[in-house]
């Protein structure tokens, strides 16, 4: 009874606090609308109509853009090609300011491609705002909800609403969560995607059959947005370039240029593709480098105090069958208080994230302990009939969040997730913090600050609300059907092209070659498990892909989805890029090595090997003897290790034709210490991993099974 009354009182207080914050904020919003109404009705609307005309023709080449950077002088130079930097470049250029952007690596190569893939306001931030009666935090959520709606509108091919389930296992939680979710709808106002609702246990199990049903009372369903983050980032960059901005990836800032008064007036940069250095002159320089914020700030003012504290967030990718194709899951209270999302994405399942202090690095790598933490939390929410195995993790990555202290405030003890804008004594404009969803608003405020600080002369105000991004102009949800009917493509391929390139999908389709089959007529897949085409590699080079990593990680998302598949397509990716970009054999080998290192380190392959290496030997005496006998059948010379030659001889004796490349892949997958040999200890480790689930579907073991060897070690829970 007491708990029931407490819930009711809590619900009333929660609703009352939300209404009070809304009323205070509404007064300010009405005042702002009154001041700006005439502007938005005239100049903004006319300018937006002009900007929203679909550009025709191809993109300028990277060489054209670099030549422009060398020869022209700019109003604004943006350092950083993530979501924030891309947003600043687009905002500034569409206001009539001559804009340049340089990125050390590839566009979206850092944090902006390693997010949870959600476009959201922040349910937990709203709860904190209401209970703490924090108007600033409330406004941050409201701002994010506006940006959520805007992003879904301006890039509908790359984003969509996603229902997210919040399972309830205690009756008293139903009204508590219900009030919080309804407050989220309430604050969204007219921009609410779809209204949240409660479902009983039976309907919850229908939606999410793998959910743990013991003590399940029901579930709440609310809606947020989901997107392809790297492609969204690239769409913003391409839109800025279409509008006239000069943007170049793989361009490192060596130092900032200053005038005689010590004011920043540009940057000395090095083109990491061609190797040459040059100066870029600009009236204002914007630092939008995320976790590397302080690196650029210290270039401008060596005595400045650092403000950024990077925090690593790890995500993992599991096979698609782990979640329904159209419903996500939120765990609001994990064992250590963090929130875990469990979401369908690109026909796979993404889970995360963690939150831990991290060192600053260009190559963040997931740790096995973080992967295990996520897996353990997932196990707590899924049915006991489902074995959540470490070996099912197809990819894992870490992204660095740029948590910041506001240098403009005296109290810098706490780190904030909202953004700050700083104008240094040398004139450098820094935008730091924030989150993906609010990139556009952050950019707007940053350009406003740069205009004021440097007396810039834009020809119009901010035009980015409602400004359609690359591919959105003539896109509609049924566009993929035209690709199927007009070009003879498979449905999944056509859907992928439509949802990746929008109305530019037809350009990619025209680049496809005939398959020589009755069906599909065009469209050669890079990998049979994924809808990616070889023609997309050639198109990626037009979208400024300069390395194999640019293609497999960001133009396509294969490295993020399945590291095995990414390794398998690499030789073909490099071969096609060599034709497009003129790479010689030495450069091709270098690209292969860099991409393999990227997959192994940054996409979780090393963490997987570490997990297998740490597996305790759990074989019985009988299983150990059986494994040893199988090892000896391969190691006929009794060397104590297995080489590629041993595998080659084994398959030849059984008249099995195995490609030479595949032989090396088979050995590499089980060679834990990477010395080119499979030792008996590693062999035992492999079978212990298969038995415990840390390793699944090992190809070498499958081939050995097909050879009808007498020995078989079964994994608990259903074989190999």
TrEMBL record:
Superkingdom per UniProt: Eukaryota
SMART domains reported in the protein's UniProt record: EFh
One GO location term (cellular component): mitochondrion
Record's catalysed reaction(s): a quinone + sn-glycerol 3-phosphate = dihydroxyacetone phosphate + a quinol
Alphabetized UniProt keyword annotations: Calcium, FAD, Flavoprotein, Metal-binding, Mitochondrion, Oxidoreductase, Repeat, Transit peptide
Enzyme category, top tier: oxidoreductase
EC number of the protein: 1.1.5.3
Pathway(s) the chain acts in: Polyol metabolism; glycerol degradation
Known cofactor(s): FAD
GO biological process, one term: glycerol-3-phosphate metabolic process
PROSITE patterns: EF_HAND_1, EF_HAND_2, FAD_G3PDH_1, FAD_G3PDH_2
InterPro entries per record: DAO_C, DAO_C_sf, EF-hand-dom_pair, EF_Hand_1_Ca_BS, EF_hand_dom, FAD-dep_OxRdtase, FAD/NAD-bd_sf, G3P_DH_FAD-dep
Localization annotation: Mitochondrion
GO MF entries: calcium ion binding; glycerol-3-phosphate dehydrogenase (quinone) activity
Positions of the EF-hand domain: 622-657, 658-693
CDD domains: EFh
UniProt record similarity statement: Belongs to the FAD-dependent glycerol-3-phosphate dehydrogenase family.
Family annotation (PANTHER family): GLYCEROL-3-PHOSPHATE DEHYDROGENASE, GLYCEROL-3-PHOSPHATE DEHYDROGENASE, MITOCHONDRIAL
Protein name: Glycerol-3-phosphate dehydrogenase
């Amino acid at each position: 009874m007491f708990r029931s009354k407490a819930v009711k009182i809590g619900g009333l207080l929660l609703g009352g606090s939300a209404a009070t914050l809304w009323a205070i904020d509404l007064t300010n919003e009405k005042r702002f609308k009154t001041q700006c109404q005439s502007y938005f009705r005239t100049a903004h609307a006319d300018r937006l109509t002009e900007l929203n005309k679909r550009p025709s023709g191809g993109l300028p080449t990277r060489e054209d853009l670099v030549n422009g950077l060398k020869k022209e002088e700019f109003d604004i130079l943006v350092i950083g090609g993530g979501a924030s930097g891309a947003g600043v470049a687009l905002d500034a250029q569409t206001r009539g300011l001559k804009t340049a952007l340089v990125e050390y690596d590839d566009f979206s190569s850092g944090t902006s491609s390693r997010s949870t893939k959600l476009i959201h306001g922040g349910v937990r931030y709203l709860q904190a705002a209401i209970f703490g009666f924090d108007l600033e935090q409330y406004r941050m959520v409201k701002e994010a909800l506006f940006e959520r709606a805007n992003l879904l509108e301006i890039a509908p091919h790359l984003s969509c609403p996603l229902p997210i389930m919040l399972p309830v296992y205690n009756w008293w939680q139903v009204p508590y969560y219900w009030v919080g979710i309804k407050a989220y709808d309430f604050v969204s106002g007219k921009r609410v995607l779809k209204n949240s609702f409660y479902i009983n246990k039976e309907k919850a199990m229908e939606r999410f059959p793998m959910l743990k049903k013991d003590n399940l009372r029901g579930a709440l369903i609310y809606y947020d947005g989901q997107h392809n983050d790297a492609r969204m980032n690239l769409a913003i960059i391409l839109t800025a370039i279409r509008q006239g901005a000069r943007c170049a990836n793989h361009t490192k800032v060596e130092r900032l240029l200053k005038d005689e008064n010590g004011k920043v007036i540009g940057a000395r940069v090095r083109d990491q593709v061609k190797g040459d250095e040059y100066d870029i002159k600009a009236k204002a320089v914007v630092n939008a480098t995320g976790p590397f914020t302080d690196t650029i700030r210290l270039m401008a003012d060596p005595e400045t105090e650092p403000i950024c504290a990077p925090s690593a967030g790890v995500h993992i990718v599991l096979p698609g069958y782990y979640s329904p194709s159209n419903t996500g899951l939120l765990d609001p209270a994990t064992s250590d208080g963090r929130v875990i999302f469990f979401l369908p994405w690109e026909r796979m399942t993404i889970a995360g994230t963690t939150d831990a202090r991290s060192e600053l690095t260009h190559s963040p790598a997931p740790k096995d302990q973080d992967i295990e933490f996520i897996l353990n939390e997932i196990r707590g929410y899924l049915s006991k009939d489902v074995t959540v195995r470490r070996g099912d993790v197809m990819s894992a990555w870490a992204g660095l969040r740029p948590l910041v202290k506001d240098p403009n405030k005296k109290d810098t003890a706490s780190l904030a997730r909202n953004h700050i804008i700083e104008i240094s004594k040398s004139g450098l404009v820094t935008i730091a913090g924030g989150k993906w969803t609010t990139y556009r608003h952050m950019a707007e405020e940053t350009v406003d600050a740069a205009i004021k600080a440097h007396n810039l002369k834009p020809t119009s105000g901010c035009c980015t609300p409602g400004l359609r991004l690359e591919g959105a102009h003539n896109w509609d949800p049924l566009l993929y059907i035209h690709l199927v009917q007009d070009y003879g493509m498979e449905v999944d391929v056509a859907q992928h092209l439509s949802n990746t390139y929008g109305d530019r999908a037809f350009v990619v389709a025209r680049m496809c070659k005939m398959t020589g089959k009755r069906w599909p007529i065009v469209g050669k897949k890079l990998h049979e498990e994924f809808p990616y085409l070889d023609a997309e590699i050639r198109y990626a080079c037009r979208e400024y892909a300069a390395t194999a990593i640019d293609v497999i990680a960001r133009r396509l998302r294969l490295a993020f989805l399945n590291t095995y598949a990414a390794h398998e397509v690499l030789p073909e990716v490099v071969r096609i890029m060599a034709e497009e970009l003129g790479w010689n054999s030495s450069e091709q080998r270098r690209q292969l090595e860099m991409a393999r290192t990227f997959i192994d380190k940054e996409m979780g392959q090393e963490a997987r090997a570490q997990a297998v290496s740490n597996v305790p030997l759990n074989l019985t005496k009988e299983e150990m003897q059986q494994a040893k006998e199988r090892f000896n059948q391969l190691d006929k010379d009794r060397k104590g290790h297995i080489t590629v030659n041993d595998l080659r001889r084994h398959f030849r004796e059984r008249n099995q034709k195995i490609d030479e490349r595949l032989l090396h892949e088979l050995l590499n997958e089980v060679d834990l210490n990477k010395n080119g040999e499979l030792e008996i200890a590693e062999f035992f480790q492999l079978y212990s991993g298969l038995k415990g689930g840390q390793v699944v579907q090992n190809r070498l073991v499958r081939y050995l099974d097909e050879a009808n060897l007498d020995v078989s070690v079964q994994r608990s829970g259903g074989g190999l």
